[in-house]
Structure formats: C-alpha cells, structure tokens
C-alpha cells in the first residue's frame, strides 16, 4: 500500500514508518519543516535499508497548505500528528485548536481526494479524564472524557477528546464514505530511534539524569511504542476495525515503580534514581506556583486504568510488558547519548 504518516518526525510516527517500510508498504510523511527530513532518515537508516525511500511533504496542522499534496494518491492515512507539549499551556485553545482543526483538515483533504482509509492516533486521554469522582475502575472503548470538566480534564486530554470527537462527527456527516479507526494509547514508552527526546519518554530521561529528588505518589498506565505501531498497522489491514476505537495499554505503574525498574536495569545510575516519596501536601503546595505541579496534584489518589482486551484480539497476542517498555526507553536513550 501507499501510506501517509502525518507528523513523521515524532516518536510514535518514526516507529510506525519503520514498521510500514519493513512490511513492504511505501511511505510518505508530513513534517512541519523539510529540514527535519535528514534527521528522520538518519534515525531510520540503522533499522531499515529503505530509509531513503520516504517521501516528505511540508504541512502544518494550522494551515491548509500542503495537505492536498500530502494525501494525493495514497491508499491509507495514519494521522499521528498532534501537539504534545512538554509544559501545560496557559491557554487551552493553543492545544485544542491545532489538534481539532488539524484533524479536520486531514480528513477534509482525504475526503476531497477520495482516500477512504484513515487511522487516527487518538489517546486514552480521550477516554480517562473529566470523570471527577465518577471515574470507573476499568475504562473501555465505550467511555469518553468530559472536556468541559476543566478541573479533571487538563488542556492536552481536552485536545485529544475534542479532536477525536470531531473526527467521528465529520465521518458521520460531511465525510461519509471515510473509513475511520481510532487508536487510543496510554503513556507510550519503549525504544526511541534517535536522540530526539519527546514528550512521554522525557520522564525517563529526567529520572536517569537525577532531576527528581523525590517522587510524587502518582502513576500512569504504560504501553510500548512497538505495540502502538502494530495496532495502527493491524487496523489498516483489518476491515473489521473500521468504525472502532482501540485502547492500547499494558500495566499501570507508579513513578516509584518506574524508578525501581530503572535502578535494577542501570545500577550505575542508582544514586540518581529517587526512592523517596514527595509528600502529598508538598505537591499541593508547589501546585499553587507551578502549572505542571498542578497537573500532578490533580492525579494524587487517582488511578486511571483502561482495558486492553479489545486490542489484544486485533493483534492476536499479548502486549509487550510495561516494564520492558521502560527498560527499552532507558537503554536506547543511553545508547543515543540522550540520557
Ligand atoms: P511527538 O511530540 O514525538 O510527536 C508529535 C508530532 O506531531 C510531531 O511530529 C510534531 O511535529 C507533530 N505536530 C505537533 N504540532 C503540529 C502542527 N501544528 N502541525 C503539524 N505537526 C505537528 O509525540 P508522540 O509521537 O508521542 O505523539 C504522536 C501522537 O500520539 C500524538 O497525536 C499524541 O497525542 C498521541 N499520543 C501519544 C502518547 C504518548 O504517550 N507519547 C499517548 C497517547 C497518544 P514537530 O516534530 O514539528 O514538532
């Protein structure tokens, strides 16, 4: 197949491009700047002999330019690009607008060009937030985050929720004929392919660098990037996935669990990896002055957990264990000199 991967420079997109190439598909990618092409090809070269076959088109989610060219003649689109900030923005719309409008731009271009198949990288953030005290013990693909509950739905989850909703609404209405599947990963770890440290794996780099003297009592459900990519490819190959959402998730791990896994795998870094807990009252106090701490404080005492049963059926196997994903992140960050 001829495939398009949007946001080709990103962490998940790089793994997906690698898997698509290795499985014999042709790949075109979008980047915000063609200058990123060399970095992308050099990241992929050690892993595939086809790195130089990738075609790149410049397109930004915030502008119409480039999207018609990007989608022309492709059989399937993997829409992966979306803003994934390192810090919480002051204005929710700075994230929501590009995520939502950008998704609609890609779908409109696809529809106009007669490309039917679209696999969207949504997020479990579109499922697990905004529930407040009603958070179910186990979330499933039937659940949706409530983006209007700002207290329990920060800007990033709101952006993913509203972007995915807009996609399903478009397909049901103006975009009839489009065949959409949503992939909803939890926190994505696993191997990086270059020294470009991106949003989710940044926490492992920060832990290894000794940036945390103590750890807040919060956690996250984890998944390996290779499984997120595998879900994208499996969905593309399976018409039964059209119209479906797939949570891609393995185990829940606290920050202390992640630090322990890293200490065991890298005893030479043990001194930098915290064992002490940051007391809840201190997290809440720091939250008064710091936006990121405010997000962390909102997670104290919450355990957002989503069921991976549906995606296991799509893949026909178990997922890569969460601790292996964390170990692979650390090992590759060290290998590429990024930690
Ligand atoms: P990255 O930050 O590595 O990738 C994000 C990609 O989106 C980058 O290629 C970035 O381009 C691109 N992008 C951001 N803003 C724009 C814009 N305005 N126009 C065009 N492209 C843009 O993160 P991930 O690879 O982790 O994320 C990929 C997708 O997966 C996102 O949709 C994210 O929401 C989703 N996701 C990620 C999870 C995680 O834990 N990592 C969990 C669940 C979902 P550039 O290189 O130019 O910045």
Global structural class: alpha/beta
Bound molecules: NADPH dihydro-nicotinamide-adenine-dinucleotide phosphate
Number of domains: 1
The order of strands across the largest sheet is 3-2-1-4-5-6-10
Helix-strand pattern: EHEHEHEHEHEEHEEHEEHEHHHH
CATH superfamily, called what? NAD(P)-binding Rossmann-like Domain
Q: What's the mean pLDDT score?
A: 95
Residues in helix, %: 25-40%
Radius of gyration: 19 Å
**Biggest sheet details:** 7 strands, parallel
- In CATH, what is the class? Alpha Beta
Write down how many β-strands occur, each being a DSSP E stretch of 2 or more residues.
12
Shape: globular
CATH architectural type: 3-Layer(aba) Sandwich
Count of runs of 4 or more consecutive helical residues: 12
Tags for this model:
339 residues; Rossmann fold; seven-stranded parallel beta sheet; 15% strand; globular; binds NADPH dihydro-nicotinamide-adenine-dinucleotide phosphate
List the helices and strands and how they pair.
Elements (H helix, E strand, L loop, with lengths): L1 E4 L5 H12 L3 E6 L4 H9 L10 E4 L8 H5 L4 E4 L13 H21 L3 E5 L33 H18 L6 E7 L1 E3 L12 H7 L6 E2 L2 E6 H13 L7 E4 L3 E3 H11 L11 E2 L1 H7 L4 H9 L9 H7 L6 H14 L4
Parallel strand pairs: 1-2, 1-4, 2-3, 4-5, 5-6, 6-10, 7-9, 8-12
Antiparallel strand pairs: 9-11
Helix pairs in contact: 1-7, 4-5, 8-12, 9-10
Bound molecules: NADPH dihydro-nicotinamide-adenine-dinucleotide phosphate.
NADPH dihydro-nicotinamide-adenine-dinucleotide phosphate binds next to α1, α4 and β7.
